[in-house]
Amino acid sequence: MSEIRPLWLLPVITFVVSIIGIAVPCVIGGANGDLQWILPFISDGGAYAPEKNIFAMLQNISAVLIALTIYVKHVQFVTFYENRRSDFFWKFLSYIMTAIGLLAAFGLSLVGDFSEKDLSDVHNAVAGVTFGAAIVYIIFSTGLSFLRPLLCSLPVALLRVVLALLATGMLIFHTCVLEFDLFFPPDANITAYNGDDEPIFLDYDSPFFAHHTVATSSEWALGILIFAYFITVVEEFRKSSLTLPSINFNADQLLPVEKRPSVENQWN
Asked: How does it sit in the membrane (predicted)?
C-alpha cells in the first residue's frame, strides 16, 4: 500500500494556506478600494467581489486542511497511547477534543460562505462560535500534550501552553473591546461607527481610529495565534507516516456469470 512519509508538511501547508486565506482577500480589497489598507477586520476581505469569492474559496480550503490535521493528530494520539496506558479517559478526551476542533473547522467554512455584508447576524454568530471552539480545542490539546509518556517534546508542550494562554487572552480582550467599546471617546456616537455592516474607512484623526485599530489588530493577532498552533504538531507528524487505503476490485464482476473466476484482484 502507498505510504506518505512527509506527513509533517500537512500542518505547514495548513498554516500557510490559512494565513494566505485571510491576508490575500484583504490585500485585493485594499487595492480595489473596497476597504482601507490599515488593519481592516478580517471579514472585510469577504465583503465585495472579487475578493469575496476568493475569501470564501480559501476559507473552505483552510477548513478542509484544518479538519485533516485535527483528524490525523487524533488518530496518531490514540494509536500512540493505546498500547502504552491502561486507562482510557484520555481517549474519551481526545474524541471530545477532535469533535470541537472539527466544529471550529466547519465554522471557518461557514464564515467564508456567509459574508458579513450579506448576512451579518449569521456571520458574526458563526465567527464567535468558531473562535470559541478553536480556543477550547487548543486548551484541550495543550493539556493532553503533557500525558505520559510524552508524544511531543517538553519544549513543544510548553510552547503550546504559551500559545494557548496568548490566544485565550486575546479572545477575551478582543471580545471586551467589541462588546464594551473600551477605546471609544466618552462623547463619541457609537452608531456612527457601527454603520450598516459595510467595511469601515477611517482617517487618522477620526475619534474612532484608536478603537478600530485595537479591535482589528487583536482580531488579526487572535487568528494568527490559532493558525500558528498547528505548526506545533510538525514534530509529532515527523514521527508518523500515512498509509493510503487499498481498493478491492472484483474483476470477475465484469465478466458474464458463466465465465467469472473465483479470484479477487487487489489494487493498491
From this structure: Multi-pass membrane protein
Rounded to the nearest 10°, the torsion over CA 167, 202, 184, 181 is -40
Residues 6+ apart with CB under 8 A from 239: none
Give tens-digit pLDDT for 181-208. Answer: 778 777 766 666 665 556 777 777 777 8
**Residue 50: which of 29, 74, 71 has the closest Cα?**
29
Range 28-46 average pLDDT: 88
Higher pLDDT, 262 or 118: 118
Q: How many CB atoms lie within 10 A of CB 226?
A: 23
Local confidence band at 215 (pLDDT 50, 70, 90 cut-offs)? very high
Range of the domain at 74: 3-267
Q: Burial level of 162, CB count in 10 A (0-12/13-18/19+)?
A: exposed
How far is the C-alpha of 69 from the C-alpha of 148, rounded, in Å? 22
Residue 174 has pLDDT above 70, yes or no: yes
Query: Do 252 and 263 meet the contact criterion of CB atoms below 8 Å apart?
Result: yes
- Closest-CA residue to 108 (of 56, 70, 174): 56
Domain count, the chain: 1
The whole-angstrom separation of Cα 239 and Cα 243 is: 14
Q: Of the spans 32-36, 78-82, 262-266, which averages the highest pLDDT?
A: 78-82
Closest CA to 236 of 151, 146, 177, 137: 151
Distance CA 98, CA 102 (A): 6
pTM of the model: 0.87
Identify which of 90, 175, 88 has the alpha carbon closest to the alpha carbon of residue 124: 175
Minimal CA–CA distance to 228: which of 159, 144, 151, 158?
Answer: 159
